[in-house]
Amino acid sequence: MTDIAPFDAILLAGGKSTRFGSDKAFADWRGQLLYERQLEKLRSLGAEHIWISANRDQEFRIDDPGVSIVVDDKPEIGPAGGLISVLGKSSAERVVVLGVDLPLMEVAFLQSLLEAGTGIVPKTREFWEPLAAVYPARSFRELLEEALSRGERKLQHILDEAKENGLISERLVTDSEKLFFTNLNSARDLSAIDPNRSDHGIQLRRFRLDSGFAMPTILLLRRNRSKCK
């Protein structure tokens, strides 16, 4: 793996999972809890320390001195609150962030963001993808705090401001990479994106909420059983 500057990693796992019906972080993904799968990805990147942004009701089984749990002290404001809580603990100059509900995110993509620099956030033609990105820790935390102090909670708007201030650069998401950002909103989504289920196409609708997401997108997932044997 290419040598890169030191960094910490943040797993954002403290969402309410209201539409999912249960805590997404503990959903089964091919015989593994989803948060464990995402932790493996962050470990493989070589982070100096991994932080899990959690809510007060979650009980993670962590037996690793390189992983710390930070309870979100601003749970009502979504991912921005989780980011601020962790960034207040980390002393790293930059952090790579991964959402727990992005099971199709690939390590190679995250690695490419880390190799590209300090403030790199993926973006489609219209929307930022803030939950698989690399942020400058201190300056981005200061921007988040300032934005929240004036009532701005939407990460889409905050990232626009971060770009204007030169804190981040956008990394255009290609058509082939859009699948990496398929997030889980319901238990049905979990079944729909399992490539071992069938060979027919399934339409999966993506929704981003006001906490930083506002994008309905329909992805056509086509699977071939023969490729999975």
Please describe the structure with a list of short key phrases separated by commas or semicolons.
26% helix; two-stranded antiparallel sheet; Spore Coat Polysaccharide Biosynthesis Protein SpsA, Chain A; five-stranded mixed sheet; alpha/beta; 2 domains
Helix content: 25-40%
Low-confidence stretches: 197-229
Which percent range describes the beta-strand content? 15-25%
**CATH topology (fold) name of the largest domain:** Spore Coat Polysaccharide Biosynthesis Protein SpsA, Chain A
CATH architecture classification name of the largest domain? Alpha-Beta Complex
The overall pLDDT, averaged over residues, is: 82
Record the strand order, biggest sheet: 5-4-1-6-8
- Indicate the structural class: alpha/beta
Q: How many strands in all?
A: 11
Main sheet attributes: strand count, strand direction, barrel closure: 5 strands, mixed
N-C termini distance: 29 Å
Level-1 CATH class name of the largest domain? Alpha Beta
